[in-house]
């Protein structure tokens, strides 16, 4: 059985400005600044080494 080397790298992210606009909308309009509310966030990740920022967050991250 061949040995496989496990490699780790820093997680690089790209956060689209629309992410923050949607977050502010949810925080102000829907949750009324309630700090006890947990907001789930979804992102897309690519293990492709040619991608500069493999983790992307945008306004669809809250769907």
From TrEMBL:
Q: Which domain of life is it from?
A: Eukaryota
Q: Where is the Ubiquitin-like modifier-activating enzyme Atg7 N-terminal domain?
A: 6-62
Q: Which InterPro entries match?
A: Atg7_N, Atg7_N_1
Q: What is this protein called?
A: Ubiquitin-like modifier-activating enzyme Atg7 N-terminal domain-containing protein
- UniProt source species: Bracon brevicornis
């Amino acid at each position: 059985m061949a040995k496989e080397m496990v490699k780790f790298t820093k997680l690089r992210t790209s956060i689209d400005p629309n992410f923050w606009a949607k977050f502010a909308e949810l925080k102000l309009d829907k949750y009324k600044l309630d700090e006890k509310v947990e907001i789930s966030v979804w992102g897309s990740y690519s293990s492709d080494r040619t991608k500069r920022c493999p983790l992307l967050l945008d306004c669809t991250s809250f769907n």
